[in-house]
Amino acid sequence: MSDLIGFKEMCTRFDVTPRTLRYYEYIELLSPQKEGRARYYGPREVARMTLILRGRRFGFGLEEIRQWLLLYDKKGTVEQYQAWIVMADRQLLALESQVAELQHTIADLRALRDETADTLNT
Questions:
Q1: Could you report how far apart the first and last alpha carbons of the chain are, in Å?
Q2: Are residues 65 and 55 in contact, defined by beta-carbon separation less than 8 angstroms?
Q3: Residue 8 neighbours by CB distance under 10 Å
Q4: d(C-alpha 101, C-alpha 2), whole Å
Q5: What mean pLDDT do residues 4-29 have?
Q6: What whole-number percentage of the chain has pLDDT above 90?
Q7: Is the per-residue pLDDT at 21 higher than 80?
Q8: pTM of whole model > 0.85?
Q9: What φ, ψ does residue 13 adopt, rounded to 5°?
Q10: CB neighbours of 27 closer than 8 A, spacing ≥ 6?
Q11: Average of per-residue pLDDT values in the chain
């Protein structure tokens, strides 16, 4: 049990709330070992949590992350990597579109701000 960590340590290590950690268990993203009410997380769960949080940071939904993690169990690493490339390509397009939209919005806001400042100065 030396490589297992407890519930509170898992929350602290990943800076997540207990509610978040319990939810990830509920939707079967994580499967800790249980002894009574205590939960213990091994290296597999720590690695999965790292991937979950990275996926969230990249903008992937929890169901999409769950399905991707299931691929490893069902079909292995190669299939999981192939799926990852498809997912990453799709998300990169979405993020690039968001960046373009934000740049357009910033330009519009800047123009309106400058126009308003010019009106005040006349």
A1: 75
A2: yes
A3: 11
A4: 49
A5: 96
A6: 90
A7: yes
A8: no
A9: -60, -40
A10: 62, 63, 66
A11: 94
